[in-house]
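Researcher: Re-running this chain for the archive, since the previous output was lost when a drive failed. Same request as before.
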Amino acid sequence: MPRPNGDCPNPLVVIPAFNEEGAIGEVVRRVRALGLNVLVVDDGSRDATYQIAKEAGAAVMMLSRNRGVGVAIQAAFRHAIDHGFDCVVQCDADGQHPVESIPRLIDASAGYDMVVGSRFLSPFTEMKLPPIRQATVKVLAWSATRSCGCRITDSTSGFRLVKQPLLGEFARTFLPHYLSDTYEALVAAGRANYRIVEIPAAFRERQSGA
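Model: Regenerated structure tokens:
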């Protein structure tokens, strides 16, 4: 198929995974069908995540114990820098993210440092959030909008593209705690005057696991 446009000619799709044997194989196969390189960071899984991801065609990095998504993502960023990739697309291992929209993230990257796939901009999103989480997401989106200088509707979306030089910055400074890979990364990029844009992305409900 034709390669995406944008200004990210050498992308790496990174998938952090912890005990995701039920969905990881299908996610990797769908990414590979797009002709893209895939790195799965197995965050100390106790199931067959590592083997299934490798058999599906991904490069797999195994962390010695469960360290959390922030550590897994930073390890993937460092791998991308070390191996000459110019952008990273983050994608979840549970089947919620629309893999087929990855080329749209790449297409939209021209002129931007980060592209976020927003579930709230797509009329086809299937994922339903409980009321208390909806309220939290709205508050975080308001805060992120102020920091980024552009409208942000989905500050906790993990479906996003990060491009050099922001990729290199995150490889050095990413924090390991909760929301560091989504909201906090977005706010930090906005405050540092990196250019950010959202595009619609139709999320699904988790396909397996918990």
